[in-house]
């Protein structure tokens, strides 16, 4: 007959802690996975915002260039924005300046639904004051 030593029998306090490390590791892995997914969303949002801003900058520069030649500034801005993966949301001509707003579809992970916007202004350098 085998005898069980102290603290080793059924229901002893030492037995209740078996598997606690497994639960802790699983919980920490879940938190790590969530943090990694959130960082992925943030990185995608930053990249898409940069893409929207670059498209707006290029569209505004192209529009200001053709405006100086008397051509359709906003039509050119729309084409350049589309060529850079963005949609032209707004285009305004103010005297010799062109103001452009371009939009890029943002990531749709973890409930994100917003699109990212870039704004730019381009035109000739102002002359000397006075």
TrEMBL record:
Keyword Membrane: yes
Domain Putative Flp pilus-assembly TadG-like N-terminal: 19-65
Keywords for the protein's UniProt record, in alphabetical order: Membrane, Transmembrane, Transmembrane helix
InterPro entries (alphabetical): Rv3654c-like, Tad_N
Pfam family, one: Tad
Transmembrane segments: 20-46
Statement: the UniProt record of this protein carries the keyword Flavoprotein: no
NCBIfam families listed in its UniProt record: tadE_like_DECH (TIGR03816)
Descriptive protein name: Putative Flp pilus-assembly TadG-like N-terminal domain-containing protein
Organism: Nocardioides lentus
């Amino acid at each position: 007959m085998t005898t069980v030593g102290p603290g080793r029998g059924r229901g002893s306090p030492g037995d209740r802690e078996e598997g606690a490390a497994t639960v802790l590791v699983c919980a920490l892995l879940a938190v790590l996975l969530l943090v990694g997914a959130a960082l992925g969303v943030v990185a995608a949002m930053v990249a898409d915002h940069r893409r929207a801003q670059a498209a707006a900058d290029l569209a505004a520069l192209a529009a200001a260039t053709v405006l100086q030649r008397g051509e359709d500034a906003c039509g050119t801005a729309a084409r350049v924005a589309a060529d850079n993966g963005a949609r032209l949301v707004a285009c305004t001509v103010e005297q010799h300046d062109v103001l452009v707003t371009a939009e890029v579809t943002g990531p749709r992970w973890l409930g994100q639904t917003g699109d990212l916007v870039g704004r730019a202004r381009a035109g000739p350098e102002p002359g000397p004051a006075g």
